[in-house]
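pasting input
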Amino acid sequence: MFVKHGMNSQFALLGSAKHCMLASSAVLRRQQFLIRTLGGYSDQTHLKRMQQTKAMSGTALEADAENILRAITPNLDSSKHKGQAGKIAVIGGCREYTGAPYFAAISALKIGADLSHVFCTKDAASVIKSYSPELIVHPILEESYSVRDEDKPSISGKVLAEVDKWMERFDCLVVGPGLGRDPFLLDCVREILKHARQSNVPIVIDGDGLFLVTDSLGLVSGYPLAVLTPNINEYKRLVEKVLNCKVDDHDAHEQLLSLAKGIGSVTILRKGKSDLISDGETVKSVSIYGSPRRCGGQGDILSGSVAVFLSWARQHLSAAEGDLPISKINPTILGCIAGSALMRKAASLAFQNKKRSTLTSDIIECLGQSLEDICPAI
Amino acid sequence: MFVKHGMNSQFALLGSAKHCMLASSAVLRRQQFLIRTLGGYSDQTHLKRMQQTKAMSGTALEADAENILRAITPNLDSSKHKGQAGKIAVIGGCREYTGAPYFAAISALKIGADLSHVFCTKDAASVIKSYSPELIVHPILEESYSVRDEDKPSISGKVLAEVDKWMERFDCLVVGPGLGRDPFLLDCVREILKHARQSNVPIVIDGDGLFLVTDSLGLVSGYPLAVLTPNINEYKRLVEKVLNCKVDDHDAHEQLLSLAKGIGSVTILRKGKSDLISDGETVKSVSIYGSPRRCGGQGDILSGSVAVFLSWARQHLSAAEGDLPISKINPTILGCIAGSALMRKAASLAFQNKKRSTLTSDIIECLGQSLEDICPAI
């Protein structure tokens, strides 16, 4: 995407900005970001690192993640009001799982979203609420064990009506953390996904949300605001289902490109030693930072993180309406790059302190410092 | 209010106190506060700042917030007993919301109230209790889903009887944080408001309490101990309902004055970049400190904070009975100014440490230090 659309004219447009001292640091940051992203940089060290990464992972291009993160993170401004820095909702949390939706939702707040909701089952709600008073937790989902067959249509309708009351207020949904695989619950979530799509709300899909979507690709196919964040096993199932072959690590970026194209218009963030990101048009990788610790829950932080940055990227691009170079950049790709970079930085910081003992909560506690290190608030 | 009633005689009364070394520092603090507040100060720097603020915000006058806070905060004294520093009750907390009433109630304690109660639904109670053992949580409110129509009158009666048992012990109610909008629950709260008013208990109204009151202005109209604390959207609804026009930011203080006068005798704290406060007689602004972070929950801290300072202001004025200048000052205005200043200071302190990652709980943790910085305990 970055390298396809009218790059020469974009570069010409931006080239002169590079040596120009701008009054607004925000504008300067954005210009610098674009110059780098679109290929107009001459930083030799950076170039070398990019070439090395390219050699390591085929022709995938290491994203200039920190500059992208800086470019899309909104300036803080006392005249703004509650909600303007993002309203995120997590759909997940059932009798079995309560940690995952909490991790995703609290991560969104710690990165700087103003409001973070969780829609989960009644059993999960009181537990998730008790983890933190900062979250707004809606106990509205139902699992089969608590619903009679004849009541299913009416309960499904109620669940959907409850989510619909809020839908248009959300800047992004995260669907899947701690969702479980109860058939009735997944049927309800299937409808929620359809409504989110009708309302043009971006959706980050992880965990059991990917189980649902792999089974019903039509839910996301052709929806450019859908982001899938599979881990190694979830990616394997997607590849087998869509491309009808095995995962090929020697040609990882081409296969990812084909997968995203095969599903149709969605963006995929393939988690791994390097995170690989594609929307079917281009492939980017994020290899900076990271930690060797693989405790469960890190994927939930990532999904919340991508949701916030994707919202910010859309906000940023919409504010820059009419500015051609910016408006051509896919916000889902930007959100994935920034979300991945921040998560990897926080994981690395937590690991420095806690080593083998690092838990997901330790990483969440490092999100603020990591963001501040990359993109100081003031 | 400050500048209207017999100012010359007040000033004459207090003028000599300014250069006099008083044995009691509390008395000295109060005198200094009054001298400043009533216009009898000659501090040029202060005067300049006031003029600048006046120029920025029309004719609204920046309050001398820190001196007001110092003047009304009671001295700590080992001979006092539990309850004398304030007993606050929050009416709020339902199936959906538990964080908001917790934030309001715990903030009251952290500022220095002795006891903090929460009246909420059964669903909310166990969660709010789990946030903190410091709060007294009454699981007495009911939502429509758990009540049959034929039982509503008797249940409503029981709810009211439970609150009435406590009503006269409270120095201030906070009505609204996490109340939700269930019709039956709001009907009960409507009655609670009437009883509080009959008992002459001050009421701070925020969140969904404002939704209720905007719909039934008679609940607060003509009640001088009612304080409304609307955010941008809640203020918009009030202006449209009462003044039948749009919010006019160019003449913000005049419109606020008209709104408070239009509702009748209530005090309004309009939250924003600067907080604007009016009782229909005068307008004050609080612009000191503050933070650009707009995470949800800060309004709940403010409502708890105003409740405590309003109680203290009343206590202070009642102790000074017969002292004409003091008794002419509206305690609701004093409570709003001090509550706003402390909240803004705590938010600023939390932001210094946590930057974009600042959450409402972080701000609450800074209330104590902020109060100590402005008004040392000993």
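fyi The domain at 81-339 of chain B is CATH 3.40.1190.20 (UDP-N-acetylmuramoyl-L-alanine:D-glutamate ligase).
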